[in-house]
Amino acid sequence: MAGFSVVGVDVNPQPNYPFEFIQADALTLDPKFLASFDAIHASPPCHAYSDLAKRNGNGHKWPRLIEPIRKMLIRSGLPYIIENVDGAPLLHPVVLCRTMFRVQLTPPKPFLPLAKKSLSQGVNNPVMGAGDLPR
After folding, report:
1. Domain 6-130 has CATH 3.40.50.2300
2. Which sequence spans correspond to the domains of the chain?
3. pLDDT digit string (tens) for 2-60?
4. Long-range contacts of 54-62 (CB under 8 A, 24+ apart)
5. Is 109 helix (H, G, I), strand (E, B) or coil?
6. Tens digit of each residue's pLDDT (9 = 90 or more) over 60-113
7. 3 state SS of 18
């Protein structure tokens, strides 16, 4: 984790999560709580944007949480990353593939990186990783 302390947030229990964990709806977190972190990684559910949902024509049945999570992250003023599937409404996504890092071949995933400050400068606060957000 590159020297960061990690705190996970998910609406569902995560008994095997290896770091500090808070069971909560990430979209309802107090802005003061968010401000205690140096950066945020969010991974909203991808079902609505997935190729399978497009093929099945049922993407409308799944929550579309990228836009509200993006608004929350922008309001936080923190650097953030939103991870989701290809075709999700990310702004200027950067596609990373595990083979870039000499990891076994898997489908690439688009990321939205936004850095407002250098993360290499005296990191004292934990990083929050929001897992699957409310369904």
Report:
1. no
2. 6-130
3. 677 889 999 999 999 898 999 999 999 999 999 999 999 999 999 999 999 989 999 89
4. 54/87, 62/135
5. strand
6. 999 999 999 999 999 999 999 999 988 899 988 888 777 777 766 556 555 544
7. coil
**String of DSSP letters for 26-95:** GGG--HHHHTTSS-EEE----GGGSHHHHHHT-GGGS---HHHHHHHHHHHTS-EEEE--TTS--SS-EE
Query: 79 and 116 in contact (C-beta within 8 Å)?
Result: yes
pTM: 0.71
Query: Locate tokens 């200027």: which residue?
Result: 92
Nearby residues of 66 by Cβ (< 8 Å), 6 or more positions away? 44, 49, 82, 84, 88, 89, 90
- Residues 65/71, Cβ–Cβ less than 8 Å: no
DSSP β-bridge partners for residue 42: 82, 130
Give the list of residues 6+ apart from residue 6 with CB closer than 8 angstroms, or none.
Answer: 19, 20, 126, 127, 128, 129
